[in-house]
Amino acid sequence: MSRGWTQAALARRARVSRAEVAAIEGNRLVPSVATALALAEALGLSVEKLFAPRGQRIGQPAWAWPPTGEPCRYWRAHVDDRLLLYPVESDAVGELAHDGLFAGERYSERSERSPQETLVLACCDPAARLLAAEYARQTGYRMIVFVRSSGRALELLAQGLVHVAGTHLATEDRPEGNVVRVRSLVRKPYRLVRVARWQEGIAVGSGVSARSVGGVLRSRLRWVGREPGSGARQCLDELFSARRAPQRIARTHQAVVEAVQSGWADAGICVRLSSEEAGLRFLPVREEFYELCFPVEREGDPRLQALLRVLRSAAFRRCLGELPGYDVSEMGDMGTVG
Known about the structure:
CATH architecture of the domain at 2-51: Orthogonal Bundle
Number of strands: 16
């Protein structure tokens, strides 16, 4: 442990649990941004220096987050000056052929694609598959999209593990929602690029007779919830007010509609696109501003420049604008945070 402190001593100084320190040191846990900042402050180091892989040089691989086991298929991408490996996830979006296989403590490369040709995005947009396809078609680069809530996506961005994060925590009533969340997690200037305004609301099962939001809330229904930090959870908390949040939790918009479709739940919060694609009735609650966030210092990266060109292209604007619940009139508008 740095400075000769025990794990318990560091945990006390950083005001985190000893178990967290042990798991992070053993590479079994990716720390939250709050935990990373607390540990770095206690040690008098920057987050980047504290969590840079030991002895890593440019070109040497490091896991973005620990693989769950072996063998493990992975994708590769350069983020800043690090070569990161990403365990393959079944619900990730993009070109899904893996780049290599990790087994027996050995890395076996399976792809000749350069990791500098891959852009990594974390977001919960169900239309991200269309963005990834259009990005590949227009630019020749590859996009891998990891499905994460707004809060978790921004944490990964702040930790330097993805190039871009998607967030939809801003609404007409709280137009600074995305800015506030970014400022709470990052310590350097970032850009926010508008993708769309979209509708979030309640997906209800066929057995629900209520026809309005108020009627649904007054009914005795089984709800599926979302994790804290997600836009859907924020919307649900506003609706429920003093009521306790549902104990059944789904990780994505798609998981919400699957829970309702299967009869595991009667209602849940998701975006209109997911609800209508599943054939469920949708009751709109609010309009949200969905934006992509990336550091200003990465603005010159050709992969990010290519992404901005796609977002401002007529072809992608037309494609996304034809989806239910997406207003793309402000697509490509950009501002700076910090």
